[in-house]
Amino acid sequence: MAFLKLDRLGARERWGLGVALVFVLVLMVDRLVVGMVADRVSAVEAQTASDSKELDYNRGVLRSKGPTEAEYVRIEGMLASEMSDSEAIDVIKGEIDDLARETGVDLVSMEHRSPEPSAGYTEYVIEIRKLEASMEGLLSFLHRIWEAPGMMRVRKVMIGPGAEDGRVEGTVVVSKILIPTGAVSEGEEPEAQEE
Question: What are the residues whose beta carbons fall under 8 Å from the beta carbon of 166, sequence distance 6 or more?
Fold first, then answer.
């Protein structure tokens, strides 16, 4: 029925109707296709901006890679250890004993806890169960531990008044981190080296 009405239109009306249909088609394409493409382009631009920020951050990280690796090698050299756990504990106890002797701290009782291996390093904990010292000597001892080469740190300090005036008694927990470099574990035999 609609086609019968279109047949009665003149050439000029048909031409106007055709132009109107073309405009409607262009408008539909604009709303459907161009809108989807514009949304996609804006999403890609947002992703590009995000990736650009991430790239700038990664470039900054790469710039610091060289100095970071150099510092790691320097620290690893100080912390590297080829000793077994018992040897390391004896060495650490000896270092603590030497520092105590130099600062006038009397170590009455000193024990160690089981080594705590972790990813890439082992932490050794030494517990000084009882010590006696002057306050000045104790502070000097704690400072010397902090300044000792390697990663020796004071974990915990508990002090109280001593039996004599001017002296204190207390306990100190000290830890030290060592990086094993193919160390021989206790109970294992070292591998024979081929020449």
Answer: 134, 135
R_g of the chain, CA atoms, integer Å: 39
CA dist., res. 95 & res. 101, Å (int): 10
* Inside any domain, residue 195: no
Domain assignment present for 104:
yes
**Do 86 and 48 lie in a common domain?**
no
For the stretch 61-91, pLDDT in tens is 888 888 888 887 777 766 666 778 888 889 8
Instruction: Report which DSSP code applies to 84.
Output: -
pTM for this one? 0.54
Angstrom distance (rounded) from CA 107 to CA 129: 8
Q: How far is Cα 100 from Cα 127, in angstroms, rounded to an integer?
A: 14
What is the dihedral sign for C-alpha 80, 82, 86, 91? negative
When divided into structural domains, the chain yields a total of: 2
The boundaries of the domain holding residue 108 are 81-180
